[in-house]
Amino acid sequence: MMKIVKIVSISVFIAIIMAETYMLFIKELSDSYSHILLMLIIIFLLLYRSKLTWAILFVICTYGVFDFFNSTHKNVPTFMDFTAMLNFYFFNESSGMLFHRICKVYPLIFYLGTSIAVMISYFKRYNVKS
User: Fold this and answer.
1) pLDDT exceeds cutoff 70 at 98
2) How many domains, in total, are found in the chain?
3) 61-88: string of b/e by CB count within 10 Å (b at 16+)?
4) Most exposed: 28, 45, 92, 123, by fewest CB within 10 Å?
5) Comparing C-alpha atoms, which of 60, 17, 21, 27 is closest to residue 42?
6) Per-residue pLDDT at 14
7) CA atoms of 73 and 23, how far apart (whole Å)
């Protein structure tokens, strides 16, 4: 089950990377709002698992959850909201479409799910007892 989730997450990231690369190519997106580096780092951390990469991925996901709830006070998309530019490009300001809502909430679901999965698999694998 976790392999399927990992493959789906990586393929969503690759699709978003391709869309952002296209938007950079047609000058619709500036370099400062690009999330390509963040997504490449997350893909690398998902593919190569060790104690260090688990810790880094957990820190990134925890900060992503914090950033998601902190972004309600900001006018511009934050760095951890990797679907924000995709939402703006395809939907502009319409919030009634289902895909727009899914795209808006996907980072939160990814960050929460990944941080929980990393904690559970870390405790299971290394027999950490409280």
Assistant:
1) yes
2) 1
3) bbebbebbeebeeeeebbbbbbbbbbbe
4) 92
5) 60
6) 92
7) 26
Mean pLDDT of the chain: 80
The pLDDT assigned to 126 comes to 63
As a whole number, mean pLDDT of residues 106-128 equals: 80
Rg (CA), the chain: 16
Ramachandran angles phi, psi of 108, nearest 5°? -65, -45
> Cα–Cα distance between 114 and 57 in angstroms, integer?
8
Q: What pTM was computed for the model?
A: 0.78
Cα dihedral 76/14/40/114 (nearest 10) = 80
CA distance linking residue 122 with residue 79, whole number of Å: 27
pLDDT at 1 over 60: no
Full residue range of the structural domain in which residue 47 is found? 2-126
- Secondary structure class of 35 (helix, strand, coil): coil
- Environment class of 20 (CB within 10 Å of its CB; exposed 0-12, middle 13-18, buried 19+): buried
